[in-house]
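From the methods appendix. Each design record in this collection lists the tokenized structure first, followed by the designed amino acid sequence. Records were kept in a plain field format so they could be parsed without special tools. The example shown here is representative of the layout used throughout.

RECORD:
FOLD TOKENS (153 positions):
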């Protein structure tokens, strides 16, 4: 990869935010051997949720997908607190939770927003396993939460 992760993201108009700070008894990211695990990230921009509510009710699937992009960028910012992003060998897994109505079944399309971010950031190394899960509620009434596991050198 000749271009940097941040320059590839910038080509799509994405900028890594400030590294998230944990608001409880945990940390934003942990390295264990060759793996980095992120805590779940909410779609926070400038200290506030980008949007709140339930997908399929007060939040559209498109807005939720944009929230998943924000969550993924925050995950990468968290990773950058424990390792240089250029040291990422591959994205192993992305897990996404979508606060959604019981009849909403497009969680995979919402979490595609996060998957797209890591594919742009890391190219083929951004291909990953994934879970996209519908839930009744998320912290702070967030519509989306994303976490990641990455392999690093």
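DESIGN:
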């Amino acid at each position: 990869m000749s271009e940097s992760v941040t320059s590839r993201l910038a080509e799509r108009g994405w900028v890594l935010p400030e590294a998230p700070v944990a608001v409880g008894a945990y940390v934003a990211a942990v390295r264990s051997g060759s793996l980095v695990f992120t805590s779940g990230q909410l779609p926070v921009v400038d200290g506030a949720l980008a949007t709140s509510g339930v997908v399929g009710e007060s939040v559209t699937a498109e807005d939720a997908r944009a929230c998943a992009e924000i969550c993924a960028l925050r995950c990468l910012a968290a990773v950058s607190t424990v390792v240089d992003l250029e040291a990422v060998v591959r994205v192993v897994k992305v897990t996404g939770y979508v606060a959604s109505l019981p009849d909403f079944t497009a969680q995979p399309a919402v979490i595609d927003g996060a998957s797209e971010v890591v594919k742009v950031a890391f190219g083929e190394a951004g291909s990953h396993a994934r879970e996209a899960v519908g839930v009744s509620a998320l912290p702070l009434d967030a519509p989306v939460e994303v976490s990641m596991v990455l392999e690093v050198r």
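APPENDIX NOTE: Residues 97 and 107 are 8 Å apart (CA to CA).
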